[in-house]
Design goal:
The chain is α/β, with parallel strands linked by helices. It is 32% helix and 24% strand. The protein is built from 15 helices and 23 strands.
Length: 461
Amino acid sequence: MHVHILGICGTFMGGLALIARSAGHTVTGCDAGVYPPMSTQLEEQGIVLTEGFDASQTSLKPDLFIIGNVVSRGNPLMEAILDQGLPYISGPQWLGQNILQDQHVLAVAGTHGKTTTSAMLAWILESAGLAPNFLVGGIAGDLKVSARYSPDSRLFVIEADEYDTAFFDKRSKFVHYRPRTAILNNLEYDHADIFPDLAAIETQFHHLVRTVPSTGRLVRPQQCDALDRVLERGCWTPVDTFGSTGDWAAQPLEESPSASRFRVLHKGEAAGIVQWPLSGEHNRNNALAAIAAASHAGVTPADAIAALNRFSGVKRRMELRGSVRQIDVYDDFAHHPTAIATTLEGARKRLGSERRIIAVIEPRSNTMKLGAMAARLAPSLEQADLVFCYGETSGKHALGWNPEEVLSPLGGRAHVHHELSALVADVAGRARSGDTIIVMSNGSFGGIHQKLLDQLQDTPS
């Protein structure tokens, strides 16, 4: 079958393209931004890419058009598909019907930590010799790629996003996946562009829970009011909990700038010790969730812990991009106040009070641009010694609120810039030896990481 994918260079749709190719389909695709690294990864697999959404692409005559949720009405190619009555389907629905149908699906859902936890779980299964299929929203250094598929494997790890499926299907993506093992990592308000309130998201999670069989397994934090409400609406599946007194618990042993160690407890009994380069309670909880889910797939806690001891992390999750004059520049995907606070608190615990933390943020997600979380932004940055905020005043990523006003509770620690070059110069000018700069955005942020490193190199000590 020949499939043509609209929005192919997004993380999810690009991964789906690689999976479709591995399943034996002829794959082509298009997007408004065809650029590396996704374009390189796709072209290396023989996938022909077209820049833009010109209606003439219907002349390719694919058997099916697969539609990403970046596509909306008014898109010229989509309008041509509708006018000509051509067959189309959403990415999540195609994946569910054509790939996941005969798989033991291990889905990782939640507001935060989906990518990291999915990568941990896939790595555990890989280390156990189970060669899982997977589709995650980032590249773990250990796994090398973000998506992989072989029909010989019957395990599939998938990052289960609650965002809507397509312009014609407003259900969350994850309702199409039919997991047998489901991690519900956490749940709070997000995606203000499509959900009016937390209750609306809870309804989507309730729909997901309804699809998990009674022989399956749900894995959830011991304490989460929103998930309590979700499961009170109906739960037909055994539940494992993780947390301080959950079925799976972590006992911190050491937290330092270079490593952390913690003991894993299963129902009060010691299962082993994880020692790795990750930090923070959030990563300990991600690990517990991954260990619990892997156990449902037959991996012993001891083997799971041994795998995590070799886990190096995921790109854009506190990824060190470089060091200049003993100033470290990190890249992190945090873009929600809870994730920002968690990232900074973890960094503070590792670095101690002696070293300065400089937070550089781009409030770029739809939720942040709309201002739904603006009141929570300043408190989330309390652990930073200096805060730099980049806010565009026009265009696609323009903020709908005043960053100077929102960050005013931070006083002189906060600095707002509307020009990227001015922001880079200001950060570099104020940074000093021993500082840690943490750049937080869910986008490319104009290549700020290398710009900062170059500017730091050129700035006198």
